Amino acid sequence: MCSERVKLYGAWASPFSRRVEIALNLKGIPYDYIEEDLRNKSPDLLRYNPVHKKVPVLVHNDRPIVESQVILEYVDETWPSHSIIPQDPHDRAMARFWAKFIDDKCVISICTALFWSRGEEQRKAFEEAKENLEFLEKELEGKKFFGGERFGFVDIVANVIAIWVAAFQEATGKEVLTEKKYPCLFKWAQEYTSCNIILKETSPPRDRLVAFYKAHVEAADASD
Amino acid sequence: MAEKGEVKLLGAWPSPFVMRPRIALNLKSIEYDFIEETMQPKSDLLLKSNPVYKKIPVLLHHDKPICESLIIVQYIDEVWSSGPSILPSDPYDRAIQRFWAAYIDDKWFPSLSGIAKAQGEEAKAAAIEQVREGLALLEEAFGKCSQGKDFFGGENIGYLDIALGCYLGWLRVSEKMNSVKLLDEAKTPGLTAWADKFCAHDAVKGVMPETDKLMEFAKIIMARFQAAAAAATPAK
């Protein structure tokens, strides 16, 4: 078992770095955590991730791995106990598909609707966000987790839906993920931090997260 | 291997994304039915098989759809595991290839498309420069991954070769249409040599469209795009 010299460069408010914390904790892998100030990135971060200059960065035996989903697959392959990604090739393909959908489409449409757009563009963004959430709702129907009976890869990647979307909504005063429209997704999100102590421990404090995004909204409004 | 009708691929000849699973299936010597999608309008089969994106490629294996080109390539690698490996076996090497494949799709290819979309000489020059910067990074990655061999995958074509190589047709179109060299023996010698070997590979040459044919197709697309933009612009 190669559990020495694991370092994680992350940021408390980043859902991407929190994903890696979830995976490492679920597998019981000891690691050093380094909190990055993203307004003042450390020389180490810039050295380990020169292409994107972002968190998370996992450093294992002095070799950096970047991009949260790439890191999750690496962690699962290196420490196979308590597996995150399904074994069956079709199930693996579906897990990768939904994880990619969440990051490439879902999150972007939600952020565009809640933060980044106004007027007609915002109306369209809301429509797109709703459509995307409907796909997730349908995928979750009849299941305890996206991974079926077990919390898995898609559930980890969907941390942003479970925790951050609620904070975005409170910070902006706008809603997109409602219990009425998406009962399965809403219930899954509500129970997210209570279904496993590790999820509770690796989640940022709700008030702090809301305050963080409220500050962003105020700064953006001030510069309009 | 695969029974008749077991494997189908919905696609279209000009699409670099469709090329990816085709190369993967060829590497594994898997026979498949290629169903050419006209895309205008999209077929019922496509809409039913890929309701989320409504895009090609879609692999149908025993009629179960798999979508997203690189996810399909990984699926092919895992299902037909007795054939030549597409992804390396070491987790770190796999992570490096996945990283660069994501970079190519998320950053580099949009910069290549950016050349065609650029308005005016200055914007075009800036777009070209961005593509070249990306290629410089990929040249370095090629050096590390290939370790002196012909491909990112080493002796044989692998995941990252497929991820980048599928765009070579469109890269050549961009070079011709803008009279520029993007791949350059002086600046990107590794990638320049790699590009020729990739295109000549048995698994690739039957599915890589000819540059001239792609160029004709590109002109039709651009004409449609410009007509739509003109129609959307209010009359003065």
UniProtKB/TrEMBL annotation, chain A:
<dbReference type="GO" id="GO:0006749">
    <property type="term" value="P:glutathione metabolic process"/>
</dbReference>
<dbReference type="InterPro" id="IPR004045">
    <property type="entry name" value="Glutathione_S-Trfase_N"/>
</dbReference>
<protein>
    <recommendedName>
        <fullName>glutathione transferase</fullName>
        <ecNumber>2.5.1.18</ecNumber>
    </recommendedName>
</protein>
<dbReference type="InterPro" id="IPR040079">
    <property type="entry name" value="Glutathione_S-Trfase"/>
</dbReference>
<dbReference type="GO" id="GO:0004364">
    <property type="term" value="F:glutathione transferase activity"/>
</dbReference>
<dbReference type="GO" id="GO:0005737">
    <property type="term" value="C:cytoplasm"/>
</dbReference>
<dbReference type="InterPro" id="IPR010987">
    <property type="entry name" value="Glutathione-S-Trfase_C-like"/>
</dbReference>
<feature type="domain" description="GST N-terminal">
    <location>
        <begin position="4"/>
        <end position="83"/>
    </location>
</feature>
<dbReference type="InterPro" id="IPR045074">
    <property type="entry name" value="GST_C_Tau"/>
</dbReference>
<dbReference type="Pfam" id="PF00043">
    <property type="entry name" value="GST_C"/>
</dbReference>
<dbReference type="InterPro" id="IPR036282">
    <property type="entry name" value="Glutathione-S-Trfase_C_sf"/>
</dbReference>
<dbReference type="Pfam" id="PF02798">
    <property type="entry name" value="GST_N"/>
</dbReference>
<keyword id="KW-0808">Transferase</keyword>
<dbReference type="InterPro" id="IPR004046">
    <property type="entry name" value="GST_C"/>
</dbReference>
<feature type="domain" description="GST C-terminal">
    <location>
        <begin position="88"/>
        <end position="213"/>
    </location>
</feature>
<dbReference type="InterPro" id="IPR045073">
    <property type="entry name" value="Omega/Tau-like"/>
</dbReference>
<comment type="similarity">
    <text>Belongs to the GST superfamily.</text>
</comment>
<dbReference type="InterPro" id="IPR036249">
    <property type="entry name" value="Thioredoxin-like_sf"/>
</dbReference>
Automatic annotation (TrEMBL), chain B:
<dbReference type="Pfam" id="PF02798">
    <property type="entry name" value="GST_N"/>
</dbReference>
<dbReference type="InterPro" id="IPR010987">
    <property type="entry name" value="Glutathione-S-Trfase_C-like"/>
</dbReference>
<dbReference type="InterPro" id="IPR040079">
    <property type="entry name" value="Glutathione_S-Trfase"/>
</dbReference>
<dbReference type="Pfam" id="PF13410">
    <property type="entry name" value="GST_C_2"/>
</dbReference>
<keyword id="KW-0963">Cytoplasm</keyword>
<dbReference type="GO" id="GO:0006749">
    <property type="term" value="P:glutathione metabolic process"/>
</dbReference>
<comment type="function">
    <text>Is involved in the conjugation of reduced glutathione to a wide number of exogenous and endogenous hydrophobic electrophiles.</text>
</comment>
<dbReference type="InterPro" id="IPR004045">
    <property type="entry name" value="Glutathione_S-Trfase_N"/>
</dbReference>
<keyword id="KW-0216">Detoxification</keyword>
<feature type="domain" description="GST N-terminal">
    <location>
        <begin position="5"/>
        <end position="84"/>
    </location>
</feature>
<dbReference type="InterPro" id="IPR036282">
    <property type="entry name" value="Glutathione-S-Trfase_C_sf"/>
</dbReference>
<feature type="domain" description="GST C-terminal">
    <location>
        <begin position="90"/>
        <end position="221"/>
    </location>
</feature>
<comment type="similarity">
    <text>Belongs to the GST superfamily. Tau family.</text>
</comment>
<dbReference type="GO" id="GO:0004364">
    <property type="term" value="F:glutathione transferase activity"/>
</dbReference>
<dbReference type="GO" id="GO:0009407">
    <property type="term" value="P:toxin catabolic process"/>
</dbReference>
<dbReference type="InterPro" id="IPR045074">
    <property type="entry name" value="GST_C_Tau"/>
</dbReference>
<protein>
    <recommendedName>
        <fullName>Glutathione S-transferase</fullName>
        <ecNumber>2.5.1.18</ecNumber>
    </recommendedName>
</protein>
<keyword id="KW-0808">Transferase</keyword>
<dbReference type="GO" id="GO:0005829">
    <property type="term" value="C:cytosol"/>
</dbReference>
<dbReference type="InterPro" id="IPR045073">
    <property type="entry name" value="Omega/Tau-like"/>
</dbReference>
<dbReference type="InterPro" id="IPR036249">
    <property type="entry name" value="Thioredoxin-like_sf"/>
</dbReference>
